[in-house]
Amino acid sequence: MPMPKQTAEGLRYNKKGKISVCCKDKNMSLVYFFAGTAVCAVLSFAYLDVDWLKLLSRVPSVGEVFFKLAHFDFGMMDLVGEAFMETVSIAVLSTIYSMVLGLFFGMIAAENIFRIHILSVTVKSFFTFLRAVPTPVWVLLMLVCMGFGPSAGIAGLCVHTTAFFTKSFSQSFEDISTETIEALEVTGASKVSVFTNAVLPAAFSQLIAWTGMRFEINFSECAILGMVGAGGIGYVISSNIQGYQYGVAGIAIFLVFVFAFFIERLFVKIKSLIK
Amino acid sequence: MQGKIELMGKREKRMYLIFGAVIAAVWAVSTYVTEFSILQLFTEADTFWQFLTEDFLPPKLPGGSELVNIVQSVITTVAMAVAATTVGGILAFFVSLFGSEYISPFPAFAKVVRGFATFLRNIPALVWAFILFSSLGIGTGVAFAALLITSFAFMVRAFVETMDEVSRDCVESLLTVGATFPQRVINGILPACINGFVSWFLYCFEVNIRASTIVGMVGGGGIGLVLFSYLKSFKYNTAFGIILIIAFMVIVVDLFTNRLRREITK
User: Fold this and answer.
1) B36 — contact with chain A (CB < 8 Å)?
2) Half-sphere exposure of B61 (CA within 13 A, CB side)
3) Residue A156 sits in which domain range?
4) Which one of A56, A95, A137 makes the best mutation probe of the B interface by having the most chain B beta carbons within 10 Å?
5) How far is residue B73's CA from residue B220's CA, in Å, rounded to a whole number?
6) Residue B124 — left, alpha, or beta (φ > 0 → left; ψ -120 to 50 → alpha)?
């Protein structure tokens, strides 16, 4: 990088004779980025062509809906509770199964463990494709094959979650310094024992962080699943809102909120404990 | 003891044990509730494979006006994500200044701001979409609003965390020389945090591309709605073609944002 031109005292002055506090060789790409984003946003708004005034005029009815949602109707509490338990279980199972699969595929995909370039590239690009297809699509596919119920939800979520874990785990594995791995290889340890004794412990806290983050996402996606027909709390929310039974939907939304809030706090705690 | 050297520290071993036990317990309870068995996947594998090969392959795209419609809906989906992320990012930047205790001019107020963002964030985007659809009607504008709410709340959290992570010395020294609040932000916060902000912004954009497809499915319009209508009418070949388009769109956006991120944090 060339040194910026400076005055004899090493100071730069702006037009008013004050000392300039701006960095001279600023990264200009940031400016282009903001300009580009602004242009794209304006174009997007022009393309969407939404009647904003009409939309704004209806905003008070959002408050009305919230008011209705806040009048909890405990009449169907057993149904809501059951659906909620089901949703939590779907989130848990899909995360656990995917974690196991993700560890396996992450091990293959990481460049520094088996060191077979073509293998890791193939695995990575395959999972990139799986990850690019939205979860509800997978769930819909599973619904067609496995019938309605939580099984389809779990299987559908697993596809996307495994793809996510494969990418993030292999990234964490690749961050591990080669010295650690080489030191074990020199002693004649097999690839698998290098993985279990060097790579896994070193990446452990990161794996926990990824798992926690994904569990949060999976829980909120579970709420989505119900809306496409895989049961659980999402179905309760969508069907009750569409049926104008806001009281029941209100409880369900409240439960989703409380649980999501709770796991967010929990994983913040766990992360600070492990560090 | 077999006379081998212990390779793991006691504390570590206990941590792994607790971790394993918790997972096993949670797994058992969840399996009991959902009655899901992994074997089911293998017994159903034939049906799945048959369905995939016979109904889905080969992918097909319709011609003529339907194709034009598909292209337009892809643009709508991207436009919703761009618009929601940009507006959300701008709003989140100003709000997050008040959400961090040591920058905000009203520190006592910071907790309230963060609490509000937490409330907005912990309700999934699709649930927001349903709440808004029932009050504002169906359409791209409402889908935009649902995406805006979640991306705004997400970015407030991310921005506040970014600001809390950078050193406080800079802001404190600006405070001691008597810099006003806008001056502290422009000369203290912005230079230190802008890269973090941008990379969170790009991440949020990636998330929104996916989310806007999903929100579209339930009535927001865009490619999600098109896909859903083909799936509902059992035109699986066309649906698979659209799934490929969505995957292509997402991968292109991911590559693009990765490139931008590298360019900017250089």
Assistant:
1) yes
2) 14
3) 67-274
4) A137
5) 11
6) beta
* Coil vs helix vs strand at B233: coil
Same domain, B26 and B153: no
- Sequence letter at residue A76: M
Query: Cα dist. A29→A4, A36, B87 in Å?
Result: 18, 10, 21
A186 falls within a domain: yes
Confirm whether A57 is domain-assigned.
no
Report the number of distinct structural domains present in chain B: 2
Structural domain containing residue B169: 64-264
Looking at the partner chain, which of B27, B30, B243 has a beta carbon nearest the beta carbon of A133?
B243
DSSP A4-71: PP--TTS--B-TTSPBP-S-TT--THHHHHHHHHHHHHHHHHHHH---HHHHHHTTHHHHHHHHHHTS
The answer for B255, left when phi > 0, alpha when psi is -120 to 50, beta otherwise, is: alpha
Å between B42 CA and nearest CA of chain A: 11
Interatomic CA distance for residues B27 and A154, integer angstroms: 13
Most B CBs within 10 A among A142, A224, A236, A259, hence the mutation to make, goes to A224
Collect all residues of chain A within an 8 Å Cβ-Cβ radius of residue B217.
136, 228
Which A positions 106-125 lie with beta carbon below 8 A of chain B?
none
Encoded amino acid at A241, one letter: I
User: Per-residue pLDDT for chain A (275 aa), expressed as one digit of tens each?
Assistant: 444 555 555 667 777 777 776 666 666 777 888 888 888 888 888 887 777 777 777 777 777 777 777 777 777 778 888 888 888 888 888 888 898 899 888 888 888 777 788 888 888 888 888 888 888 888 877 777 777 777 788 888 888 899 989 988 888 888 887 888 888 888 887 888 888 877 887 888 788 888 888 888 888 887 777 767 677 788 888 888 777 777 788 888 888 888 888 888 888 787 777 66
CATH for B189: 1.10.3720.10
- Rounded Cα distance, B263 and A214, in Å: 28
Taking a C-beta distance cutoff of 8 angstroms, is the pair B126, B143 a contact?
no
**A21: chain B residues, CB-CB within 8 Å:** 187
State the complex-level ipTM. Answer: 0.77
Predicted TM-score (pTM) of the model is 0.81
Query: Do B19 and B130 share a domain, yes or no?
Result: no
Q: Does residue A203 sit in the same domain as residue A157? A: yes
- Taking an 8 Å cut-off on Cβ atoms, the answer to whether A62 and B136 are in contact is yes
Residues 6+ apart with CB under 8 A from A80: A233, A236, A248, A251, A252, A255
